[in-house]
Amino acid sequence: MLRKRVPFLAVLMYTLACGGGSGDAPAADQGPATSDAPAAGGAGAVVEVRMITDDQGNRFEPADVEVRQGDILRLVLVSGVHNLHFLPDSNPGATGLPPASEMLQLPGQTLDVPITMGPGHYYFQCDPHALLGMVGKLEVEDD
Questions:
Q1: DSSP string over 27-43
Q2: pLDDT, tens digit, 9 for 90 and up, residues 75-126
Q3: Fewest CB within 10 A of the end CB: N or C in the chain?
Q4: How far is Cα 35 from Cα 137, in angstroms, rounded to an integer?
């Protein structure tokens, strides 16, 4: 009985991870949404990145992000099931990388990541969709 369920469970997990994007994602704009309003706790600006699955694939929008130390990187799930992971292998020598996040599963769900890393370039990905091109670059600028 378990042998019959394994393929079904594999298909179910793949379907959930890739989402069923309806194509109702908001139109792409030219850059991240940024708010000058302080984030909770008096931090810097909030820089928003959308996580999307639709007929164009899986992606971060925008995929290249510029922030300053003290800012908040806010991930907003538009569609699909995604996470955020700054892999140590992709960021050799980097310290203070945030841990891999839990999967965001509900449209509108957000994840706030305080920017505590030093100035430099950092690479991130969505674990289940990295091989499909869901990767990005974060540039932390000097104050």
A1: PP-SS-EEE-SPPTTT-
A2: 999 999 999 999 999 999 999 999 999 999 999 999 999 999 999 999 999 9
A3: N
A4: 20
What amino acid occupies position 84? L
CA distance linking residue 59 with residue 129, whole number of Å: 8
The label of the residue with tokens 């940024």 reads 34
Euclidean distance between CA atoms 96 and 53, whole angstroms: 29
pTM over 0.85: no
Give whole-number Cα distances, 36 to 5, 97, 125, 142, in Å: 50, 24, 26, 17
User: SS3 helix, strand, coil % of the chain, rounded to 5?
Assistant: 20, 35, 50
Nearest to 83, CA basis, from 46, 57, 115, 51: 51
Radius of gyration, CA atoms only, the chain: 16
Is 72 in contact with 39 (CB distance < 8 Å)? yes
**From the centroid of its chain, how far is CA 29?**
17
pLDDT tens column, 37-53: 444 455 589 999 999 99
* Rounded distance between C-alpha atoms, residue 106 and residue 93, angstroms: 34
